Amino acid sequence: MASTLGGVVEFLTRFGLFDVVLPFILVFTIVFAIFEKTRILGEYDSKKPKSNLNAMVAFVFGLVFVTATKLVVAMNIALPMIVVMLLAIICILLIIGSFFNEGEFNFMTMFGNNHKGAIVGVAIIGVLAAFIYAMGWMTPIINWISNNWNTTAAASIFFGILMVVLIGFIVGGGEEKKPSTSSSTEKKN
After folding, report:
1. What burial class does residue 20 get, using C-beta atoms within 10 Å of its C-beta: 0-12 exposed, 13-18 middle, 19+ buried?
2. Buried (b) or exposed (e) across 126-135, using 16+ Cβ within 10 A?
3. Mapping DSSP to helix (H, G, I), strand (E, B) and coil, where does residue 131 land?
4. SS3 for 174?
5. Above 70 in pLDDT, residue 188?
6. Which of 11, 75, 108, 130 is the most exposed place for a label (fewest CB within 10 A)?
7. Reduced to 3 states, what is the DSSP secondary structure of residue 136?
8. What predicted TM-score, i.e. pTM, was given to this entire model?
């Protein structure tokens, strides 16, 4: 039995909310914001953009976009994936924020001699793996690895990853030393 809210979403889908209304609003808003910011269509003497012209042209752009059904389908496929990527980035930033103080985190020195950096690195890999698994992309990867474990391609990939890790460990190992100031340049009192 479908829930009431599920019925509402189904009605809105049949009504065309996701195929017409939301794509139109999105394109209209983005085009209008670009026109307002760039003032391509001009501005009044008071240095305000011509919002009525910007709105009309953005309205036309939105309607033309909605009539191109292939573009709407592509947008309906791409936008959920973009949202999932944004959620993954937010989760990663939350993990980084929970281990580092303000101003303490630096991507370049994250994996140096810092144990927090290693924990954050493992957590980032875990978040990415969770999102890859949730999207259903993990099964083909695991199947490919299990079917091609003894092949040259798998060995080459493993060797490449090992080389990147070793080079990163060797190159990023130490801290920069600051040059010492000499006391000979100081004036004697």
Report:
1. middle
2. ebeeebeeee
3. helix
4. coil
5. no
6. 108
7. coil
8. 0.52
Q: How far apart are CA 100 and CA 139, in angstroms?
A: 34
At which residue do the structure tokens 């924990």 appear? 119
Q: What is the pLDDT of residues 21-66, one digit of tens each?
A: 889 999 999 999 999 999 888 888 788 888 889 999 999 999 999 9
Instruction: Decide: 40 and 31 in contact? Cβ < 8 Å.
Output: no
* Spatial separation of the C-alpha atoms in residues 154 and 86, rounded to whole Å: 30
- Between 19-23, 135-139, 183-187, the lowest mean confidence (pLDDT) is in 183-187
49 by DSSP, 3-state: which? Answer: strand
pLDDT for position 121: 73
For residue range 101-115, list pLDDT tens digits in order.
Answer: 777 666 655 555 556
Q: Which residue has the tokens 């303490």?
A: 104
In whole angstroms, give the CA distance from residue 17 to residue 39: 31
d(CA 40, CA 32): 11
DSSP string computed for 71-122: HHHHHHHHHHHHHHHHHHHHHHHHHHHHHS-TTT--GGGTTSS-HHHHHHHH
